[in-house]
Amino acid sequence: MGWHDAVKLPWPTIPVRTGAPTDDVDDDALRVTHPHDHAAGATAVAVALRHGVEQMGPLRTAQTLLRLNQVDGFDCQGCAWPDPDPKHRHTAEFCENGAKAVAEEATRRRITRDFWARHTLDDLAGRTDYWLGQQGRLTEPVVRRPGSDHYEPISYDDAFELIGEQLRSLPTPDAAAFYTSGRTSNEAAFAYQLFVRAYGTNNLPDCSNMCHESTSVALAQTIGIGKGSVHLEDFYDTDLIIVAGQNPGTNHPRMLSALETAKKNGAKIISVNPLPEAGLMGFKNPQTPKGMLIGERLSDLHLPIRANGDLALFQWFGRAVVEAGRLDRALIAERTTGFEAWEEHVRRVDRDEVLAATGLTSAQLDEATALVVASPRFITCWAMGITQHKNAVSTIKEITNLHLATGAIGVQGSGLCPVRGHSNVQGDRTMGIWERPPQHFLDRLRDEFGFEPPREHGHDVVDTIRGMRDGHVRFFLGMGGNFLQASPDTEATERALRNTAMTVQVSTKLNRSHAVVGETAIVLPTLGRTERDVRGRGPQTREQFVTVEDSMSMVHASRGRLAPPAPGVLSEVSIVAGIAAATLRDRTDATGSIDWAGFAQDYSTVRHHIAKVVPGCDDYDAKVRAPGGFQLPHPPRDTRTFDLPDGRAVFTVVPLDVLTVGEDELVLQTMRSHDQYNTTIYGLDDRYRGIHQGRRVVFLNADDARDRGLADGDHVDLVGVWEDDVERVAPSFRVVVYDTPRGCAAAYYPETNALVPLDSQAEHSGTPTSKGVIITLRRATAVSDGSAGSGSGASVGRHHKDEVQPHHLS
Ligand SMILES: Nc1nc2c(c(=O)[nH]1)N[C@H]1C(S)=C(S)[C@@H](COP(=O)(O)OP(=O)(O)OC[C@H]3O[C@@H](n4cnc5c(=O)[nH]c(N)nc54)[C@H](O)[C@@H]3O)O[C@H]1N2
Ligand SMILES: Nc1nc2c(c(=O)[nH]1)N[C@H]1C(S)=C(S)[C@@H](COP(=O)(O)OP(=O)(O)OC[C@H]3O[C@@H](n4cnc5c(=O)[nH]c(N)nc54)[C@H](O)[C@@H]3O)O[C@H]1N2
Ligand SMILES: [Mo]
């Protein structure tokens, strides 16, 4: 297959917007139209190609997109949805949003020396992430020295020395924190956690802490492993799929193809979501001619659940299967514990309480219950609508109860399917990026490398922010990601980062975390997945590949083909190795003799260590070379066994609770638009929800708006409600009257992160409660500056109550 295959795709007819990157758009441009009832289709292909052509030009677009998710190509950065097995891949195995993710990285725009001379740090801190991202790829390391208001060029080696010096001078290794976003490859992640533990701390916060941590905690405690239990093939032969708290049309578009096949083979689909998300309602598959034109209705039943009503819903399903005797008695008796207590508990679940908590009608509840009871096999999928609530761990345990009771686990067509976010977030965890590593992992690390790793738990994301705020954490390194904008309580996080001695970012592109920094700040550009990675010297020169793990535990190779963004830009593995060598060089124990230079030259040396340390990875270097890779073991999925005391899975009794708010208050969920990747803003449209050229919108139920004397098009400030005396305000959002349940509002992340209190975390997992933010509205007096991206400190505020500007008091 060559790039010319792409001429079959309609790119030449796509209008191309070129020219200089645009800064913040003006608010007048914001347009609201009817939401869509279908996702994908021909428009998706057109939009995908337009983004590609704008950023990369037509040739590079074709070359790149056709490598996406192919056996000899690179893994899409877009999401963690698995690829079909090699025999069943399409020529174009990508989606609109995967294409945007690739275009964002493979852009031809570059940040060069004059950029740093032109812009002060203050200037950059006042820009939106949208503007910063549009400047292009980082090409050269830079440093901001104490007292200076500019970044200036520095070599990688000098930067490594500065970092090493800083790390050696800290009073304790626990005064440093090492963040990871979920794009980091397995090789880089393994080397990174090894370095951090050799240095002496478990302070390895990661994006998982804000994402699927609640899943990891709940599943580890109930089935003995914190990962989902299905294969992609399970979707093709099942009776029912429940999709709860997830918007696949935007965030996992390739999942729609799996749902479409499931339906064709007879499965029913229930969507559990406050919003009638386009992808869940219908799908026009752009890979088939019929799909392009006609499309498929996907959900057989949409349950417009109230925010956080899911625990009640799943408890009700529990009661229903118990009463119907739809139980797997053998599994319960032989391989689980706690069933009787759970059974007794769910038998008492009250229908009226469930109806109140979920906001569903009796008819909706009955129809859903009948489907669950009548389906011999079923899969439950979930994402952030479940994990980012205070009681998220309880809800996921309740989902697990239902699967254990009915035996819908470890059999074909059934299982638990948490759908992960970042493309390698699951792999990073497997490789040991975790502030609470299991002891057996540390034992194996010790045996392999001959040093005693630290045993106490480290800081997660929120504790890292607290540590920086309180002055215990003096050093921060971000291996990718955008810590400032992804974290809760934006202004608190901003102050925390500024309170450190040094911040280091290893990044492909600029974002606000490069502008809000410690006393010394370093930016180290790195290669992305799309790029050729050639390491070694002289005759040893060899092209490297890396490996990743998807949401269904498939591990496989990823190889980029494009030229690096600039000569000399290093891979993440080499950067980790450089920092580690500069930091640990003078150690006289085993940590001083790890062969970092060898790692940087040949990643198979890292893979040989992975094979020895990481469970399930024997013979790793060989297995990942097989087309399609290999699947990591998962005892519940593979053999219905549970790596827990007595080998038994655990039923959990959780009290029924639901987030309730005062009369004037609303529950705000902070979610993604169709034109963003987390904090990276690709554009200003949320096509499926009918939002164009703007992001500062708040979706409200018509009655909630009317009760407040508001109409569609009015502007309001969102005001956080929390127990401390800090006022959190996100000013000037346009009201969009929308099909969302009463009391449930929605707006985009990260503009609204300022409203998420640092201390508002999920129980047991510590995840910020980004889907359960309590707010009130007040009429805005000033119309927004229309800032397009994530908002700077200037437009997103957090004030002590006595500092509130007069116009904020209505
Ligand atoms: N294009 C694109 N792809 C992405 C990302 C991206 O930003 N852009 N991000 C990646 C990452 S890191 C992740 S974690 C995933 C995120 O994937 P999702 O979890 O789909 O992302 P969100 O936009 O946060 O959507 C949450 C969904 O949950 C619903 N919801 C909110 N509250 C509740 C509730 O209380 N109950 C129920 N049942 N539903 C609720 C919302 O209406 C929304 O449909 O996507 C990954 N893929
Ligand atoms: N309010 C609210 N907050 C949330 C969420 C929410 O739903 N609501 N969702 C949470 C979730 S699920 C997540 S996962 C986090 C995401 O948090 P992060 O992972 O920290 O954020 P991203 O926006 O994905 O990071 C984007 C940056 O990563 C860098 N980057 C991209 N590719 C690479 C690469 O290959 N290598 C390196 N080194 N750098 C790269 C670029 O510089 C880019 O600017 O946000 C969380 N925050
Ligand atoms: Mo995520």
Automatic annotation (TrEMBL):
<feature type="region of interest" description="Disordered">
    <location>
        <begin position="784"/>
        <end position="810"/>
    </location>
</feature>
<dbReference type="GO" id="GO:0043546">
    <property type="term" value="F:molybdopterin cofactor binding"/>
</dbReference>
<feature type="domain" description="Molybdopterin oxidoreductase">
    <location>
        <begin position="137"/>
        <end position="510"/>
    </location>
</feature>
<dbReference type="GO" id="GO:0008863">
    <property type="term" value="F:formate dehydrogenase (NAD+) activity"/>
</dbReference>
<protein>
    <submittedName>
        <fullName>Formate dehydrogenase major subunit</fullName>
    </submittedName>
</protein>
<dbReference type="InterPro" id="IPR037951">
    <property type="entry name" value="MopB_CT_YdeP"/>
</dbReference>
<dbReference type="InterPro" id="IPR041953">
    <property type="entry name" value="YdeP_MopB"/>
</dbReference>
<dbReference type="GO" id="GO:0016020">
    <property type="term" value="C:membrane"/>
</dbReference>
<keyword id="KW-0004">4Fe-4S</keyword>
<dbReference type="InterPro" id="IPR006656">
    <property type="entry name" value="Mopterin_OxRdtase"/>
</dbReference>
<dbReference type="InterPro" id="IPR050123">
    <property type="entry name" value="Prok_molybdopt-oxidoreductase"/>
</dbReference>
<dbReference type="Pfam" id="PF01568">
    <property type="entry name" value="Molydop_binding"/>
</dbReference>
<dbReference type="GO" id="GO:0051539">
    <property type="term" value="F:4 iron, 4 sulfur cluster binding"/>
</dbReference>
<dbReference type="Pfam" id="PF00384">
    <property type="entry name" value="Molybdopterin"/>
</dbReference>
<comment type="similarity">
    <text>Belongs to the prokaryotic molybdopterin-containing oxidoreductase family.</text>
</comment>
<keyword id="KW-0408">Iron</keyword>
<keyword id="KW-0479">Metal-binding</keyword>
<feature type="compositionally biased region" description="Basic and acidic residues">
    <location>
        <begin position="800"/>
        <end position="810"/>
    </location>
</feature>
<dbReference type="GO" id="GO:0030151">
    <property type="term" value="F:molybdenum ion binding"/>
</dbReference>
<keyword id="KW-0560">Oxidoreductase</keyword>
<dbReference type="InterPro" id="IPR009010">
    <property type="entry name" value="Asp_de-COase-like_dom_sf"/>
</dbReference>
<dbReference type="InterPro" id="IPR006657">
    <property type="entry name" value="MoPterin_dinucl-bd_dom"/>
</dbReference>
<keyword id="KW-0411">Iron-sulfur</keyword>
<keyword id="KW-0500">Molybdenum</keyword>
<feature type="domain" description="Molybdopterin dinucleotide-binding">
    <location>
        <begin position="666"/>
        <end position="773"/>
    </location>
</feature>
<dbReference type="InterPro" id="IPR010046">
    <property type="entry name" value="Mopterin_OxRdtse_a_bac"/>
</dbReference>
